[in-house]
Amino acid sequence: MSSKLSKRFYIALIIFSLIGQVAWVVENMYFNVFIYKIFNASASDISLMVALSAVSATLTSIFIGALSDKIGKRKIFICGGYVLWGVSILCFSLIRIDVLNALFPTAVSVATIGVSLVIILDCVMTFFGSSANDAAFNAWLTDSTDSSNRGSAEGINSMMPLVAILAVFGGFMALDLDKSESWTIVFTVIGAVVILIGILGIFLIEEPVREKENSRYFDNIIYGFLPSTIKQNAKLYVALIAFIVFNISIQIFMPYLIIYYEVSLNMADYVLVMAPAIILASVVTFFWGKVYDKKGFAFSIAFSLLWIMLGYIMLYIFTNKALVFIGSLLMMSGYLSGMAVFGATIRDNTPIGKAGRLQGVRIVSQVLVPGVVGPYIGKLVLSGADTIVNGDGTVSFIPSADIFLAALIAMIVAIPFIILLAKRRKNEN
What we know:
The chain has 429 residues and is mainly alpha-helical. The chain has one domain (7-207, 216-428): MFS general substrate transporter like domains (Growth Hormone, Chain: A). It is built from 16 helices and 2 strands. Strands 1-2 form a two-stranded antiparallel sheet. Strand 1 and strand 2 form a beta hairpin. Helix 1 (7-39) packs antiparallel against helix 5 (110-144) and helix 10 runs parallel beside helix 15. The chain is globular, with a radius of gyration of 21 Å. The two termini are 16 Å apart.
């Protein structure tokens, strides 16, 4: 029998998931654009930033997730984390050429200093963001749902990255991102909103009923990596392995996606092209969580893979705006619906009361390994990419469609693990 979730739960889910994803979109998709446009960053710089951020997110999720289990509280980490997350985003508004020239008047390359500062501050921001969102918010979501409604909740949670992309695209349309002052506006507005949401959470979030544990903190930290835990939760770890390969495929192209649209395809109006695709993909993802609840893992993941692989093929082959739109729609629908399916099945197989200490292994599969391996593969694919000379004489690379072919190959590698997981689930039903 399905358990009904409260309106207050859904309001908290929507607000915190959306604003959290807005912040992650700015980091995952626009920090790359920021250092590319303002500091002429290379593919290696972008790959390094994504990798270090992934390491920061993973370590944070392991230690803070385990701590939230030990204390038996999620709310304090969510609300406090969002406030500090917002403050760290505000700090990016100070990383400007004029400020760096004033601070380092004798520096040979202010651009190099700018890239380095962005990478360092990105790791700091990731610590607060992962504490609030990856570790605490995701554990709260697992605690607050059960197997009868998890797909529906995860459908909403997983559609938010696309809704966030739409919100960010729309908000950035009026800004000239080649200008430093535009980025100051971006970081100031996003940072202030995240802070306000953290304060709102004090009054909105309902703390799930959990008992404070007597286990040792260190035991909570290593719990998800113990052979005994893996043996007792085999389905969970098969799902995590499949999730790793799925996310590696995503991270091969995602750090370069906006640059590809804008620079490689000369789509200055890429926001207008992508907005309808994002809206439609968000609707698909919302309903796909309900499909998971009714049809199960095998049925729902099969269509997600079909959509994303067809999207990759179209984006690799075509440059026509209409066909790029269709390919992007398929890619985004498959990506987000796949995230919803994997998210729900991982939560379904998470031992009750141990959601916090298992956020670390979830982030290993969603962020760390994909965030290191995916961009590295993308960098290798783009190692021979064409270049353009900027107005100031510097050189920037032009991403090629080969990133989508590499992503397709990686997704094919995920299929055997997904089949194994589907068979294990079927055998238990």
